Amino acid sequence: MSSIPEELSYTKEHEWVAGLDDGLTVTVGITAFAAESLGDVVFVQLPEVGGMVEAGDAVGEVESTKSVSDIYAPVTGEVVAVNQVVVDDPSLVNSDPYGEGWLFQVRVEGTPEDLLTAEEYTQVTTAES
Amino acid sequence: MSRSTPLREVHESLGATLTDFAGWLMPLRYGSESAEHNAVRTAAGLFDLSHMGEIFLTGPQAGEALDHALVGHLSVLEPGRARYTMICAPDGGVLDDLIVYRLAAEEFLVVANASNYQRVAAELTARAEGFQAEVADRSDEYALVAVQGPRAQEILATLTDADLPGLKYYAGLPGTVAGVEALIARTGYTGEDGFELFVAAGDAVTVWQELAKAGDAHGLRPAGLSARDTLRLEAGMPLYGNELNAGLTPFDAGLGRVVRFDKPGDFVGRAALAPLKDVPPRRRLTGLVARGRRVPRHGYPVVLLTDGSVVGEVTSGAPSQSLGKPIAMAYVDTNVSEGLAVDIRGSHEPVDVVDLPFYRRSK
């Protein structure tokens, strides 16, 4: 069973969002469940800093040995940082998906109503495994 | 509902991610597929290949029946030796690629891909009619366990008295492994030295567990289909359904050498294949190495960088551990070899043409 931290928010597409409650800027990554189903991540393509993203848009991709998946923006806003360390070492997505494997940060202008709690996301992963 | 091999519980106890492959529930990976790939390149990997089909031909004319049914010349195979060959449709299209072992003067074993073996067994049965030969699909009775990698011989030697150093590549001999009867073959699909062990389904767990135990100190680890696919791709080996299919002849695939027009008698596909022998095909199976990090994958178009016109199609692609870059095999028009790109979801990523295989082990 992969870990699903209580304090984060989630999307159905297996992104996590941190910092939604306490500020303007959130951090986004993909969940341990997603990383495990992808297998070894070999490449991540992230949105450009300064660019605007719209919640639900495909803004990047994460590629593993066997497959490639889109990364969706969980919120609307401006990309203010991307994790260059994970670009250089994509295996961090597998080894530390909620920590060093974070992907990008967004200054939030809009939050969709369908973000999931940890409990709700657990149900999504149970249904898919 | 997918079928399970006799090793399913072993895979589950190892924490494998299981996947459906050709109707079988098979281990995709046990942990990191890159680590499994590297273990096979540097030490050894243990594979469950029990989904493969085992079809036996026996009788005084078993060799002649295979000469008629397949494109190769099997009746001249020495007992104990094996050969890579194909079964074609009357129109020359490849129905499957096969390894045929001659076990004895009047006994052959045909190993077919999981996705095709029922069709292969049916075709062999039909094509053997009129020959003194019996065809028996015994796939359900057999398990196939492979140990592949530079330390494979060392590991297997601890469990058998068979003369492994004397066993040549593409040869097989009956023996005992971990106390159970096995056909020990020096064959594989990884580009490394290694062995494939055909054992009774009921003995699969014993053989697997003993190999795992014996290999532990040598760096052996269980390896799944994901690693098997990247290993064979680096070795430039075709996969049925990717590089081979019924719409392609052996000549299209650059494997015309397996078609033996010099054997006596007619064979299925001869009339269609004979005129193709000296005709250069329009496209050639080509090795591509990406300059960037995005991975060309099965079905992606190969295009010209200049004007984007389509000149080919990727059949298999993956990030290569050994090269550190994405690699692909593709059918590409024979008149182009430079200025190529792969259309990766809308963007044209430059690739270089290289000779196959991508990886060759040092001997």
Walk me through this protein's architecture:
The complex is a heterodimer of chains A (129) and B (363). Chain A has 129 residues and is an alpha+beta fold. Chain A has a single domain, classed as OB fold (Dihydrolipoamide Acetyltransferase, E2P), CATH 2.40.50.100. Helices cover 21% and strands 35% of the residues of chain A. Chain A is built from four helices and nine strands. In chain A, the strands form two sheets. Chain A has a six-stranded antiparallel beta sheet with strand order 1-2-3-9-8-5. A three-stranded antiparallel beta sheet of chain A has the order 4-6-7. The termini of chain A are close together. With 363 residues, chain B is of the alpha+beta class. Chain B has two domains: 1-277, Probable tRNA modification gtpase trme, domain 1 (Gyrase A, domain 2), CATH 3.30.1360.120; 282-354, Beta Barrel (Elongation Factor Tu (Ef-tu), domain 3). Helices cover 18% and strands 34% of the residues of chain B. Chain B is built from eight helices and 20 strands. In chain B, strands 11-12-13-10-4-14 form a six-stranded mixed beta sheet, with helices on both faces. A six-stranded antiparallel barrel of chain B has the order 15-18-17-16-19-20. Chain B is globular. The N and C termini of chain B lie far apart (43 Å). The model of chain B has no long low-confidence stretch (mean pLDDT 97). Classes of the chains: A alpha+beta (129), B alpha+beta (363). The interface between A and B is medium-sized, with 12 and 16 residues. Chain A: The modification N6-lipoyllysine is found at residue 66. Chain A: Residues 25-107 form the Lipoyl-binding domain.
